[in-house]
Amino acid sequence: MNILTIPMRNIRRKPSKTLLLLLVFSLGVMSIVALYEVSQVVGHSLEKKLTAFGANIIISPVSEKLSVSYGGLHMGDMLFDVHDLPEEETVAAIRSIALNDRLSAVAPNLVTMTRVNDTAVALVGVRWKDERGIKSYWAPKGTFPEKPDEVLVGSKAATKLQLKAGDRLSLLGRDFTVSGTLYDTGSDDDTVIFMNLSSLQELQGKPGATSFIEVAALCAGCPIEDIVAQLQEKLPGVEVKALQHVINQRMASIHFVQNLALTISVVILVTAAAMVGLSMMSAVSERKKDIGILRSLGYGKPQVFIIFCLEAGLIGMLSGVVGYLGGFGASFQVLEFLHMAEGGTPIFSSTHLLMAAGLFSLVTVLAAVYPAWKGAGVEPSAALVAL
Amino acid sequence: MLSAQNISKNFITDNKVVPVLKNVSVDIHDGEFVSIVGRSGSGKTTLLNVLSTLVRPDGGELHYGTENLSALSEKRLNRLRQSDFSVIFQFHHLLPYLTVLENTLLPFMQSVRPVKKAAMEKALGCLERVGLADKADRLPGNLSGGEQQRVAIARALVKSSKVLFADEPTGSLDKGTGEKIMGLLSELNNDGLAVVMVTHDPVYAKMAGRSVHIEDGVIV
MacB-like periplasmic core domain location, by residue (chain A) (predicted)? Predict the structure, then answer.
């Protein structure tokens, strides 16, 4: 028996009123938790889908660029000390970073120039599975290459070279079959010819070499700067560049979903807190007699204040626990309803449960501060009027 | 022990200042049983509330021992009400959601520290004394009016108060129950507890060692 006994017993006194308040606040908490869990899963799923629209980190060898002019004639930029990256070691190093779970795709590329029917064209060697993991927007007229002697031609290159699926062409002295041509992508992919990386490495006499490696990273769980820093640590002497505009676009979409959930949550929370505040306000008016008895027994203003705050805090704590469990369960139903269940599963966390209990008891205590302060301010003489 | 000198108290009703106590002076001695009698609206309850520190007077001085209560801070007055002063009201005023034992122990439940075993035993002893030990676990709603008043007296006893202020303690009780309560108050007074009681009933007033008559805010 202590001061806690008073609010605890009072909560039991009017079970229907307490249950109603508990129900209302629990529903608020439940909505917030469900929204949070769903937004996390949707955000993660959205990020995964957005990652399929290209890389957001480029890893390339360090090179020195020099602008050359002589006699007033500008001769363009020249690159010095361009080295290829060793494919196997570099990919292994990338995959060994601590935030490896945030890397959704790693795609090595080898680039070279050649001529087809006297037309200069860029050849890009890729690992089909990895490249298509990054560029899910690719759509071929024909099929994607399946054999080492098959190539995929970008839309503009295909028009210029008058190539279509099934045509044959000679590249770097070897015959290849066009398995398909890409529909317009609006990117550099339209002007190049893609072939199997191993085939190009062999034709170039550069076994295991890559010009650069594209990385698609999931950035919702951690800042891209952390991933870049870890990659730089694993790959000293190699340039690791984050494509900020790509990242920002993706994060804006994800943050929109999460901010929308946050805004709705805040509205629900404020409404629920206002209800608790109003309920405590009426409780203070109803219980002037109790305040009078307590003050006549020597209870000071702080004790009366604490009793009302504890009462609200207990309701908040219970609502936090009930609402969290309810919201967690409801998030599965919501995801099912939105047909997003395959996007991921909310993960139960006892830490989150404790945090919910703590946070919502704090919110209800804050909502009760004013009514409790009013109650504590009632002078014994004023309370005696009620007696 | 308790001395009120030239106490005045006004209330404001319909924007008019209504004087309820006009320069009232009264002394309560150690272990004395004093009844305050008078007609309704004469100011007897207000005088009791001033003496018990529940209402601050507008003028005059209230001394308890060597302390000037009129000048004491709110905190010190709370402490005095926790230890030396106890008040029982006409309608017994227990918290309906606490058991008889918890209501009795209310003075000791002011912090998160659990009530000590010694206090618990003392509370049970006080309930025993008022004949309610067997109903310690009941809620006040399950008790008769007389029993509820006895719980309020047990709550006053458990603090080892020096003065018990009783505002019409028999006012809502039948004759038989009222007499039992008066008998209990006399018994406590015989044990050394000073009792200041407001009553309408001239018979009960005579049970006190001294009666103070008040009319229109003035002791006559």
Answer: 18-216
- B105 pLDDT more than 90: yes
Identify all chain A residues contacting B110, using CB atoms and an 8 Å cutoff.
Answer: 3, 298-299, 303
Average pLDDT, chain B: 89
From chain B, which residues contact A within 8 Å (Cβ)?
Answer: 49, 52, 54-56, 74-75, 78-83, 87, 89, 91, 93-98, 102, 105-115, 120, 155
Report ipTM (2 d.p.). Answer: 0.85
DSSP letter for A53, please: B
How many Å lie between the alpha carbon of B49 and the closest alpha carbon of chain A?
8
Question: Residue B145: pLDDT above 60?
Answer: yes
A241 touches chain B (CB under 8 A): no
Q: In what order do the strands lie in the sheet with B218-219?
A: B85-88, B163-167, B194-199, B33-37, B210-215, B218-219
Q: Do B83 and A298 touch (CB under 8 A)?
A: yes
Check residue A126 and give its pLDDT. Answer: 95
Q: How far is CA A242 from the centre of its chain?
A: 17
Q: Do B110 and A298 touch (CB under 8 A)?
A: yes
Instruction: Please indicate whether, in this complex, the C-beta atoms of A2 and B96 are within 8 angstroms of each other.
Output: no
Neighbours of A58 (CB within 10 A): 15
Domains and CATH numbers, chain B: 1-84+177-220 (3.40.50.300), 91-160 (no CATH)
- What is the nearest CA distance from B168 to chain A, expressed in angstroms? 12
- pLDDT for B170 equals 83
Taking alpha carbons only, the member of A84, A105, A90 closest to residue A201 is A84
pLDDT of residue A194: 96
Which mean pLDDT values do the consecutive 10-residue runs of chain A (387 residues) have? 89 84 88 86 71 74 72 67 85 91 88 89 93 86 93 94 92 93 90 94 92 82 77 89 67 76 86 84 83 87 90 90 92 83 79 91 90 84 61
CA of A103: how far to CAs of A54, A55, A62, A230, in Å? Answer: 13, 10, 22, 12
Out of A295, A297, A380, closest to residue B107 by CB:
A297
Interatomic CA distance for residues A177 and A167, integer angstroms: 6
B183's CB contacts (< 8 A; 6+ apart) are none
Q: Is A139 exposed, middle or buried (0-12, 13-18, 19+ CB in 10 A)?
A: exposed
**Residue B54 to residue A296, Cβ atoms within 8 A:** yes
Q: From the list B54, B94, B109, which residue is nearest A1 (CB)? A: B109
Q: State pLDDT tens for residues B161-212.
A: 899 999 888 887 788 888 888 888 898 899 889 999 999 888 888 889 899 9
For testing the chain A interface, which of B109, B155, B159 should be mutated: the one with the most A CBs within 10 Å?
A: B109
Quick check: A284 and A308 in contact, CB under 8 A? yes
CA-based end-to-end distance of chain A: 26
